[in-house]
């Protein structure tokens, strides 16, 4: 009787914590992040989703992504309106839905307590909360990946018809959510090969069937992308990553987007991982297949993306690998659960405090490197630009978030000069064309306001040219990497 | 709940590890070595040289381990009806009467027809007070007793003396505290049907492993050796004798002139037998149960004796110059003895971050993340292989005791090089009381030095990346030393010290 009471109070406690996690995700996260200025990627999502379904598919086909999220966003905006908080709420909903799925997945692999602890980390994760409030597909990606991982583990443990159906459906949804979902499918396959004996008799056939269905279902999209002839666009314009980028990703998964000092301090602690590894060496603590799967989910896509970026084409971005992050949190929970009780509690508290610290600083600090305060730039220019001034935005594509907020009367152009109404790619920067471009911009204007952000390797050249040819009047930083200059052309 | 002892014994079942992960770790090992050696600009040349020396040793250890455990489960021909005559030697040199009596009684009860038990009573020559009582006890129990009157060569001399007075086709050796199971002979004798098999070795199990922190940690260290290492060595015909719980063919032992008379008589004797072409077999099943040292001083002495004996083999019986051994056997023997060089490597690894903290010098100038990117996968895959091959019995305590024993290893190395005379001493079978903190003064000194170094470096560098990273390395070393330091204090000798460990890891 007493045991039953204990059990029900434990169940109640877990339920309360889970609800609290969802509240954190929904409420606190909303307060911290929803009021931020629109960022470049978000403006792109809004712009794409503002078109018709047919046009969205066409635009996405020329982009580096797949169409599910923009189509969902399109419908969402049609129903609820086009305000930024409304658009961001769609991502937030997927994040909130991910929390019980995350807990259920964790419970399937580990104990309820381990899973609950990992769920707390997940729900206060600065990285996750950032993307839960961004008008992009990443929280949907995490949600689908979690569902998919759940069904894979369910197949391993129960091999039921329900789990195969769930696995198939999540595969289909996943590949239309993000190209990187294929990496998760690859992990599934490698995991199956390495653990064949733990799967059911017909697993191989069923996996083949799912693979076939997924490929058939995805082939229209691939055919369409080829048809558009834009397949070369299907890789983002990135630099090759270094080991610093790799570890920055881990750092972001822990403490979110932080300034250089905090990031350096955190990454310099790396040998502590070795000690944590040593401390996990305990008798009788067998590594179960579920843990192996999580290790694979965490390590294989990261390794592939990293080396492909170095040797084939750059595709390494921490947000593309966001689906590996839940595995990392579950593994953290598992590692801590292996420690002696005192150490476990101490380190668990430390982990939670670290996440809370990251969450708070990321949300409140103006120096958070991923913040893009185009809203304030626009407000500032509306108040300070004179009618004879011209506004120049570089890199050209950052004109989207700026124009979302800017409602002034000044002419807005880009460097390199780009006509947004023309079909085709953004013109590349040519240094020898810079004087000509500047001359054409200076015509009929006395002052130029230059907004530099998203350096594509030529921001500094533009700045130096202008600094050496014109008088600079204003220099103002609005957020890391977003700088406004004012130059005087003529009196 | 599974009986704790049964659980431990069962864990000698080592699952085979896939070639894929071994290849991966080999690649990672070489990559790590390449990167650390060639990829970064050299900082302080002396430190760099020391670092590379240490890394060569690490790489060698990792590669040899993987080579050894690439296959662990072997089958050997046996004949269950084979029943030759066996002489069972219980070697005694002053051990408590009750302990010897238990062993002798258990030996008498062994389920086999053609055997005779002898107490090899060395108490007289070892000047132990109870030699006469031992003799009486043997008479009372109706077993043979051979009391040596001419001293010399310690345990080896005792066995060799008995060899001359007995005739059995095979000889079983038990230390006084190693109580055999009934089926000891039934399990091991059948393998000797192959006339080329010189000896069959079974594990040394500490039945008192759950007595206190020291016994538990001693056993933790043993498990890796009697698990994957000995099992893997079956594949190279390079299983060493372990001094007890073994059955030896008399003709094989005679062919090498009896037991070798060095302080590691068992190890050298097996090497000589392999040289002569005899085969060895290791059966990974607990068939006798002995006693671990129960206090830190006894542990320390035991480890020193093993280290000194092994290092003597390097300097006086260099395995690479032994004719008759295959290169694989030489490699295995060398890897067994070279473990005791690891004390120097631990000191190197511990001093490198201190060099930065005090003098700001580093062996290599590196982006911290580049080093981490290669080191982390390497170390974690290595740890996984250790865990998997030991059937998840390798623990932090085992690691901590192996690493923290650096002063024992260095002291043994010094005494071996300088040729200091070391008497063969038997590990005490009863707990000795006292505070043995004086044995861990070097570890405590390191902690003090680390604290001073951290303050010193912080004042010089502030919160720089190098300061943080080196501080963490120092912290890691300290964390590894702490279980060893704890073992030296009196409370580690109480059973309460391990209650939680037993509940968490052995239940």
Order of helices and strands of chain B: HHHEHEHEHEEHEEHEHHEEHHHHHHHHH
**If helices are DSSP runs of H or I spanning 4 or more residues, what is the number of helices of chain A?**
21
Q: What fraction strand of chain B?
A: 5-15%
One letter per element, helices H and strands E, the order of chain A comes to HHHHHHHHHHHHHHHHHHEHEHEHEE
> Structural class of the secondary elements of chain A?
alpha/beta
The helix tally of chain B amounts to 19
Biggest interface, chains and residues, is:
A-B, 30 and 43 residues
The Cα radius of gyration of chain A reads: 25 Å
Biggest sheet record of chain B: 7 strands, mixed
**What value does the Rg of chain B take, in angstroms?**
24 Å
Described by strand count, sense and barrel closure, the largest sheet of chain A is: 5 strands, mixed
How much helical structure, as a percent, in the residues of chain B?
40-55%
Spatial order of the strands in the main sheet of chain A?
2-1-3-5-4
Strand content of chain A: 5-15%
Mean pLDDT of chain B: 89
Distance between the termini of chain A: 89 Å
Query: Mean pLDDT score of chain A, rounded?
Result: 90
Q: Brief description of this entry?
A:
The complex is a heterodimer of chains A (491) and B (507). With 491 residues, chain A is α/β, with parallel strands linked by helices. Chain A is built from 21 helices and five strands.
Notes on the protein architecture:
The complex is a heterodimer of chains A (491) and B (507). Chain A is α/β, with parallel strands linked by helices and 491 residues long. Chain A has 2 domains: 93-122 and 141-364, no CATH class; 374-488. Chain A has 21 helices and 5 strands. Chain A has helices at 2-33, 40-49, 53-61, 68-80, 84-109, 112-124, 126-132, 138-157, 161-175, 181-194, 203-228, 243-255, 260-268, 272-279, 289-311, 325-337, 341-364, 374-384, 399-405, 434-442, 459-469; strands at residues 390-394, 411-414, 447-452, 471-479, 482-488. A 5-stranded mixed β-sheet of chain A has the order 2-1-3-5-4, with helices on both faces. The longest helix of chain A has 32 residues, at 2-33. A 7-stranded mixed β-sheet of chain B has the order 3-2-1-4-8-6-9, sandwiched between helices. Chain B has a 3-stranded mixed β-sheet with strand order 5-10-7. Chain B has helices at 4-10, 19-39, 45-69, 97-108, 131-141, 154-163, 184-188, 213-233, 250-255, 265-275, 296-316, 327-338, 342-359, 368-389, 396-404, 406-417, 441-461, 465-487, 499-505; strands at residues 86-92, 115-121, 144-147, 170-175, 179-180, 197-201, 205-206, 246-249, 279-282, 288-290. Chain B starts with a helix and ends with a helix. The radius of gyration of chain B is 24 Å and the shape is globular. Chain B has 507 residues and is an alpha/beta fold. In chain B, helix 5 (131-141) links the parallel strand 2 (115-121) and strand 3 (144-147).
